[in-house]
Amino acid sequence: MNAPMTPFAKPWIANPDGYRVPYEVFTDQVYYDQEQEHIFRGETWSFVGLDAELPNNGDFKSTAIGDTPVIVTRDQNGQLHVFKNLCMHRGALLVRESRGNAKSFDCVYHQWSFDLTGVLRGVPMRRGVRGEGGMPPAFDMANFGLDALRVEVMNGLIFASFSKTVEPLADYLGEGIVANIQRIFNRPIRIMGDYRQYIHGNWKLYAENVRDPYHGSLLHLFHSTFGLYRATQKGFTYMDPSNRHSLLKATASAAPTSASEDQEVYKDVRSYNTEFHLKDASILVGRPEFDDRASLVINAIFPNLLIQQIANCLAVRQSVTHASNAFEIVWTLFGYADDDEEMQMIRMKQSNLVGPAGLISMEDGEAIEIVQDAVIRDGKKTSVLAMGGVHSGSVDHMITEGPIIGFWENYARYLNLGADLKK
Amino acid sequence: MSQTITAAHSAAIDALHTAYLAALDKGDMAAWASTFAADNARYFCISAENDHRGLPLALMYDDCRGRIDDRVSFVTKVWVGTYEPYRTRHFIQRLSCEAAGNNQYRLTSGFTIMMSAEGGTTAVLTSGEYRDLIEIQGDGDKFRAVFRERRAVYDADVLPRYIVFPF
C-alpha cells in the first residue's frame, strides 16, 4: 500500500501583510475529492434551478451538484423533488435529456421505472419469464426508491442538500442574503434563456472572482470606460454572519465626484479612456427598478450560486464542477413576468454585458485560466489576499478582498484543514 | 420556393459570404461590420438550446447598426489585452435560398468554426446554422449583397471557452 497522502500538512497563514492560500487547492485531486464529499455533498445547500424552469407538473431538468448528476422534477401534485440521477438497479444515468416533461423516469438499461416522487413502480421480468428467473422473494420494490435530496424553495430559487443535518435554508443564508433574494425575486419572473460556458480552471477561482469587488473596474474596462461601475463609486461589501456568502453592492450612480479624482484613481490603468463613446448608447439606458437604486449587486452564495443585478440585467449563475481544472458556468437570465415590451428590450440589450461573450464577463474566463495555467507546478506557493486589510466580514466600501478570505475560512472549516488557520 | 435566383445575384451572395468569413478569419472586425447594410442591420448569435426552447437570450444581441459598430470597438479597443489571442477558420455550405422580394433573399447555411489558440492546438469551436436576410443593393453592373440580418445559431450546448469574436 502506498504511503498515505498528507495534502493538508501545510498550514495556511494569515499574517498582518496578507492571507495566503496555497495554489495546490486549485490543482490537487485530493482537494477536489474532499470538496465533493464535504462541501457539495456535505453540510451545504446548493442551487439547482428556478421553479420557473419547471412550470408544469411532470417537468424535469438534469443538472449537477459539484459533479454529482441530479434530476430536478415537479411531480403530478406540483411538488418539487431533487434526486440523484442514478438508477437504483445498476447505476445508469436515469435521465439523459437536459430538460423535458415525463410521467415517469424509465431507465433505458433494464427499464426499471420510477414515478416522479422517486418511488420504484416497475421492474420488467420481476416474476420471471415462463416461470424462469425473476427477482427473489426478498426483493422489495419499496427499498429501491431514488436517492432523494432535501429540497427547499425560496422565492422561486430551488436549493437541494445531500445533508440530513444542515440547518434550514433561511438560517444557512442568513437574514441579509435572504433579504437580497426577496429584493430581486419579489414577483414572478420570466426566463430569457441560458448561457453555458466551460472554463479550463478550478471552480474556486471563480468563487474568488465573484467575491472580489476590487477587480471589477480594473479587469473589466467596459465598466470604468462607460461608467457602469467605478472604484470611486459608493458601495459596500456585506457578508453573512458565517462569512460564507457575500453581497457586493454599488449604490447610487457611477459618475465620478470629479474628473481629477477619477484620473487619479485610474492613472495606472492600462487603457482607461473617458473619451470613448458608444454609437448606440441605448445599451446603458436602463430603468431604475429597485427602491435602493443600486446599480450593481453581486451576491455569492456558498458553494455554487451567484445572483446578479447589473443595471437591469438580472441573472443567476450556477457553477458545475468537472475536474480540478475544469468547471462550467450555467447562466440563466430573467426579467419579470409583468415587464412591458420596452423593459424586455432593455434587458435584451443589457444581456450583452454578461455571459461567455459578455462585455463585463468575458475577461473573467481568461483571468481564471491564466491563474490555472501558471500555478500548475507551484502548489506550495501561495496567493496573497491583503486588499482592505486581512480580514473577512462586512465593510462599507468595495476595495477589499475580505469576502475571498471569508470563502477560504469556510473552505478550511468544511475540509477540516486544521486550527492553524485561525489567526 | 418563389422566384429563382439569378446567377449574378447568387454570385453576389457568395461574395458576401466569402467576405464575411475572410474578415473573421483575419480578425478584421471593421471588415466584418462592413458586410452589414450601412443604414439598418442586425446581428444575433444565439444558442440552439435557447432557439429550440423559443427563448430570446442571445450570446451577442446587436439589434441595430450602431451596436454592430460598437462591437467592433469592444473587440479592438475596450477588450484589447484582456483575452488570449485566437484565430479562427470558418467553413460554410448553403442549405437553402429563397427570394423574399425587394431584392432580398432568405438563406440558411451550415457553418463550422475551427479555433487555434496561441501556443495551442486547433479544435472545433462550434458548428451551427446561419439564418440570413440578404439584400442586393445597387443596379446595373454595380451591385453588392449585404446582410440586413444575420442570425448565427450555434450548436454547442456548452461553449468550450469564452468568446471574443462573432460567429
Structure description:
The complex is a heterodimer of chains A (423) and B (167). Chain A has 423 residues and is of the alpha+beta class. Chain A folds into two domains: 46-152, Rieske [2Fe-2S] iron-sulphur domain (Rieske Iron-sulfur Protein, 3-layer Sandwich), CATH 2.102.10; 174-421, Alpha-Beta Complex (Naphthalene 1,2-dioxygenase Alpha Subunit, Chain A, domain 1). Helix content of chain A is 22%, strand content 27%. Chain B is globular, with a radius of gyration of 16 Å. Helices cover 27% and strands 42% of the residues of chain B. Chain B has a six-stranded mixed beta sheet. Chain B has a single domain (7-154), classed as Nuclear Transport Factor 2, Chain: A (Roll). Chain B contains four helices and six strands, in the order H-H-E-H-E-H-E-E-E-E. Chain B has helices at 7-26, 29-33, 48-53, 65-78, and strands at residues 42-47, 60-62, 86-101, 104-117, 122-139, 142-154. The interface between A and B is large, with 41 and 38 residues.
Descriptors:
heterodimer; A: 423 residues; alpha+beta; Rieske Iron-sulfur Protein; Naphthalene 1,2-dioxygenase Alpha Subunit, Chain A, domain 1; 2 domains; seven-stranded antiparallel β-sheet; four-stranded antiparallel β-sheet; 11 helices; 22% helix; globular; disordered N terminus; B: 167 residues; Nuclear Transport Factor 2, Chain: A; six-stranded mixed β-sheet; 4 helices
